[in-house]
């Protein structure tokens, strides 16, 4: 459900749900699914909390 | 007081931070500090902006950060640290305060970074990366960022690759979601949504091999997977693909990867390249904090980062 006033974007069209194991923090750290989400994860290294660079 | 010589911004629950920390500690026993915002939030600390910070992390001696150190920024906090925290909420404010403390401490300490944090933040931007590749004469797929779906049809070929300019991972309270690179027909009606959030639209290169190249300073390691019918456009979608990487010898790619990393001032990078069906290499993506432990030369990469961190600047 879109927030009021938000336009639809390709995020709405192209987002897929990952298998539950990828979301499970207890997964073995080097599982392939950890690697599967690694690139996007890296974007968060510097921009936690709403995209504000913190370091 | 203990004076660390190496500061790793990360968490030992992350195997990449752990691998480098252990190797650095073999060079400099007792002088490697691993800290992130989560760990800092459990520490005793005193920060006088006019003097050196002191920290006492759980189970460790008090350290004072006033000597020259070498530093590596892996992660400011574990990925899970802010899951389920609503932006603008009190919990978000609390976490941001811890991140600000971490930021203030590392920015006012005497740290020589493998990759300066500001450079890493800049280098993560894909527009910056493709501009750098163009400046250096490194081939990359023709790329556009546009709100106009008709403009996408200027790209060569009938199909285009789209991928997010922003984060590709979206977490709800209970699920992990991702937006992978996807191939769309150049007249796909979904491209009308390009004006709702900036996405990268690219020429689709027919790949024969996918490369992951890791650079540490001027050194580089290259590994590849051959493309078969089961390899998706974005190889990260195929769990088996991560296990199939093998060493590859691609001198032009390695040279380009090192030049790109140098141009962007990132002492570490993991990069994705494609070799097309004519054998021509294309730069696709650079990540200043990407993973390497699934690659065949993982141990050498960890060694190289640890060796750099362990050099004595005094």
Description:
- The complex is a heterodimer of chains A (55) and B (314).
- Chain A has helices spanning 10-14, 20-23, 32-36, 38-43, 48-51; one strand at residues 16-17.
- By secondary structure, chain A is mainly alpha-helical.
- Chain B is α+β, with helices and mostly antiparallel strands and 314 residues long.
- Helices cover 26% and strands 27% of the residues of chain B.
- Chain B has helices at 15-27, 37-40, 90-108, 117-123, 126-136, 149-152, 251-263, 298-309, and strands spanning 6-9, 32-35, 44-46, 54-56, 63-64, 69-73, 111-113, 143-145, 159-164, 169-171, 176-178, 182-185, 199-203, 207-216, 219-226, 246-247, 268-276, 281-287.
- In chain B, α1 crosses α8.
- Chain B is globular and about 65 Å long.
- The model of chain B has no long low-confidence stretch (mean pLDDT 91).
- At the A-B interface, α1, β1, α2, α3 and α4 of A face α3, α4, β10 and β11 of B.
- β1 (16-17) of chain A pairs antiparallel with β11 (176-178) of chain B.
């Amino acid at each position: 459900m879109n927030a009021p006033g938000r336009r639809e974007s390709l995020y709405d069209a192209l987002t897929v749900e990952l298998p539950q194991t990828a979301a499970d923090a207890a997964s073995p750290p080097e599982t392939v699914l950890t690697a599967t989400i690694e690139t996007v994860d890296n974007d968060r290294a510097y921009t936690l909390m709403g995209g504000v660079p913190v370091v | 007081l203990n004076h660390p010589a190496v500061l790793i911004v990360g968490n030992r629950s992350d195997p990449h931070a752990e691998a480098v920390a252990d190797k650095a500690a073999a060079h400099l026993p007792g002088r490697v500090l691993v800290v992130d915002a989560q760990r800092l939030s459990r520490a005793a600390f005193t920060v006088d902006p006019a003097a050196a910070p002191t920290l006492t992390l759980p189970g460790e001696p008090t350290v004072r950060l006033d000597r020259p150190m070498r530093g590596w920024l892996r992660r400011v906090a574990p990925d899970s640290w802010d899951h389920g925290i609503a932006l603008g909420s009190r919990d978000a404010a609390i976490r941001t305060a811890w991140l600000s403390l971490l930021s203030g401490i590392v920015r006012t300490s005497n740290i020589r970074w493998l990759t300066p944090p500001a450079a890493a933040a800049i280098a993560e931007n894909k527009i910056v990366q493709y501009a750098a590749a163009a400046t250096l004469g490194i081939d990359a797929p023709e790329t556009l960022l546009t709100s106009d779906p008709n403009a996408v049809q200027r790209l060569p070929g009938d199909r285009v690759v789209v991928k997010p300019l922003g984060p590709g991972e979206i977490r709800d309270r209970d699920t992990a979601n991702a937006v992978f690179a996807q191939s769309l027909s150049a007249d796909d009606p979904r491209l009308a949504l390009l004006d709702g959030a900036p996405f990268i639209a690219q020429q689709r290169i027919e790949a024969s091999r996918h490369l992951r190249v890791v650079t540490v300073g001027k050194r580089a390691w290259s590994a590849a997977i051959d493309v078969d019918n089961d390899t998706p456009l974005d190889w990260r979608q195929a769990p088996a693909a991560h296990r199939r990487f093998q060493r590859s010898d691609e001198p032009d790619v390695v040279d380009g990867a090192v030049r790109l990393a140098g141009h962007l001032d990132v002492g570490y990078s993991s990069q994705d390249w494609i070799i097309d069906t004519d054998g021509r290499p294309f730069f696709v993506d650079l990540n200043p904090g990407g993973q390497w432990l699934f690659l065949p030369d993982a141990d050498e990469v960890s060694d190289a980062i640890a060796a750099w961190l362990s050099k004595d600047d005094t």
